[in-house]
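Appendix B.2, paired examples.
Example (i):
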Amino acid sequence: MKKLMVGMALTATLATAITPGFSSIGENQGKAYAATVTYKVTASKLNVRSGAGTTYGIIGSVVKDQTLSVVSKNGSWYKINYNGRTGYVSSDYVQASGATPPAESTTYIVTASKLNVRSGAGTNYAAIGSVTKGQKLSVVSKSGSWYKINYNGRTGYVSSDYVQASATASPKLVVDSFKTLGNAQQVILVTADNYDTKSAKIQTFEKVDGNWKQVLTANGVLGQKGFALSKKEGDMESPTGKYTIGTAFGRYENPGTKLPYRKITSNDVWVDDSKSSLYNTWQQKPANGRWTSAENMDIPAYDYGFVINYNESRTPGKGSAIFFHVGTNYTAGCTATSKEQVVSILKWLNPEKNPVIIQSPVSELDKY
């Protein structure tokens, strides 16, 4: 065979509003804090995802009546603390009481020339002070059309009609510096610390409204001897470079990918005979003299995967059968990760977004 093969600990119920200790407006800008509220799961089992949408990978799950620590709300998704990392759950299956959590972390700026700060959420409450145009506010939560703020060491409220929220700058992603992506709107990035390691980091990114967003991060493996400086047939090394993505495949029915999908049969092979005119192509047995060596496709490593379009010119001896597939040990030249992550990536990939896969040691990412 050529290719080888969170107990739940959510933060307890929010008992008090999380507010920093500062004395005046303008300190700790751009950070939204959760409101005083208890959130409980209403579904029997609810997936926790790496991003706010079903296209993002599943990183775990929570169960009915479990309490969640909600950081903020993004559309119909709650951002939560999950086992020490950030996760997202659908708000359709979470029941909340109390104040509404604010939107994603933002900077709030006063737009009125002078805006009263009141002791409660309404004009019937007394004014305790005022803020002026361009001043930055630290918002705790939103109640109706009023923002609850920290004002000179005490709680105040301002009308949301005269406060403008602008998103804080997101941390720069590695793909933001890439110059070779062309019209690609989905990127799978496979990196390793150096050429000689078989361990890899797999990240996926998608361009949304002109901006790159990170979707998934997972551990993966490369060829037994790591990345190849110059890939050759049988060298047990994975090729570096940027490649388009070919046919998805599996030994079972289509798991939900939008890529062209081919179900593997017991007769399917991938020709690795460099002297054959069918070198580096998917064929079916019997060989009938067409090749002397071919890899069997009907194996557990290929329960699910997709073809990395490497050596499309089919140059003899340059390497064949380069896939992204299931595996957690090492491969003979492919890239692999857990079956769950492979399926998640297959479901996410969209040929209309011209996806590519980039494989590289971290030190050479500036090539892309």
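Example (ii):
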Amino acid sequence: MKIGILTHHMVVNFGAYLQAYSVQEAVKKLRPDAEVEIINYIPIKHFIINTVGWFLWYKNRQNWKNWNNIFRLPFTLKRERSKHMNLSPICFSSKAISRLGYDLIVVGSDEVWNYSDSKSVNPIKFGHGLESSRLISYAPSAGNSNIENIPEIVSSGLSKFSYISARDSLTVKLAEKITGKKIQEVLDPTFLYPLPSEPNPYLPDKKYILFYYCEHLPPKLKEQIFKYAKDNDFAILGAGDSDKDYEECTVNMTPFQWIDMFQHASFVFTGTFHGAVFSVLNHCQFKVYLTNKGRIAKVGALLNSLGIENRMMTDDYVFDFSTQKHEIDYSLVDKSIAEKREMSIKYLKDALS
């Protein structure tokens, strides 16, 4: 059997890389008899916008001294994809994908069904043009799309799937509205099996506070956190995130070195879905600051599902590690994850059968 995985694997983003890798590894574990590939499909518009966007200059956060570190990450991720992902030949169309002869295609994870995002919405990821293969989904997200106004490419596409799951409650509602069937909500694939880490050369010899894309944090909050860190001998680093106020620029690293930064952090501040995911996976105490509507929806759904919705920061938040270092009871969180993991793996195993 030949199985293809269709997802956002080319995005210059550690979370995107790790979710694609995790789907690949989960499918390989559940179907060791199958030939498993990540479909190296490159939608030109999404690829160009994402790649060009990576090289934008943010004068209030970055400095030229760190530019070489930032510039090299897309090439590092390209090398890591070649090393750890079983990639198909490059495809630019559904016809090219169909010629590869997949018996089954897994669509997901990530926001592959976010039809409100004009740069990445794509009929192929709703199954259009993939007529020769059986289609299933694993943990796709529709982001913050308006499910009261569903485009025809979405409604007609989802009807082609023999198994559908979703990563969040909004996408569940979308799929149930289209299909009239009960839809399984499953974990992001990074939760399914332990992921490796690699020693990170950026780690300091002292305790540190880690930031991962909290770029819209109000100056007053940022200043208070940085002052606390200085007064209490914490280093401040970014998890593959550039800011001239961090002690080092830590952008150019492998995804598994990125995981290592979470494993040793004393506290994490993040504004992203996978920043929250890897904080949870590594039992970090953490807070999230969210301004983007899509991130509010998907991070909020994750936190609510794990019973830790109080991770959201408000503008009057005051950081004090001594009183916040035990706020999350991970024995309860781990129990919730274990139940959801068992259910998610069972869904994927049944869908791949």
